[in-house]
Design goal:
This protein has 268 residues and is an alpha/beta fold. It has one domain: Alpha-Beta Barrel (TIM Barrel), CATH 3.20.20.100. The protein has 10 helices and 10 strands. An 8-stranded parallel β-sheet has the order 3-4-5-6-7-8-9-10, covered by helices on one side. Helix 3 links the parallel strand 5 and strand 6. The longest helix has 15 residues.
Length: 268
Amino acid sequence: MEFVKLNNGVKMPAIGYGTWDLRGQECVNCVSKAIQTGYRLIDTAVMYDNEREVGKGMKKSGISREEIFLTTKLDHRYASYEKAKKGIDECLKNLQADYIDLLLVHEPYAEYISMYQALEEAYAQGKIRAIGISNINRRLYDQLLSVCKVVPMVNQVESHVYYPQLSYQKYLQEKGTVMESWAPFTEGRRRIFAEPVLMEIAQKYQKTVGQIALKYLSQNGIIVIPKTAKEERMKENISLFGFSLDESDLHQIRKLDEGKSLFGWYEP
């Protein structure tokens, strides 16, 4: 496993396991299996309605809490300073956790700054090891930087080979924020696993298309959180280390960048 050092010195795994579409016992079993497979970053959110199951899956895995990097996010139901404070405690209870490794404001709500201020307070109190934002574009990010006490450690955004947001990644890095990708496989918006460029490079390295798509992001300093309920794919996705794409590969994949969101609501 490789790690990315956040601006406060905390080490965050370079690849994690996403849980957005997992529910019930399937979620418990998948989270447990992912951790046993080697994942140490688990990503959930209040919006996913599965925090309790994620907590149960972590316990079922048999791996100590200290080895797991747990991320969750507050949504519109906590869109104020006071509501966010309450939401943090609810997350801790739902996850059956004494602390959260990374807590994010999920979307650019009108109250995202006051929500973030509640995160800063909880961070100072030790309830959270790192704080950040999600789906925040550069304009709103700069606005937050102008008033925040703690520079966001992470910004989780749409990022994949068709819209990697590499220039934004470099800007965030300069300011001290790590970019994290949701939808590294486009969530079905593109037939990424049949992409000829990726297929050719995958054959060159004797890897899968999925591994190449993830490696491209990871090699550009972007944390990835692929989602799957299949154990075989869990093992495949986490096998990103031990090889590197060369400059010709990176150049070919960069040509796939369409420069716009596939989801229509997030723009830089």
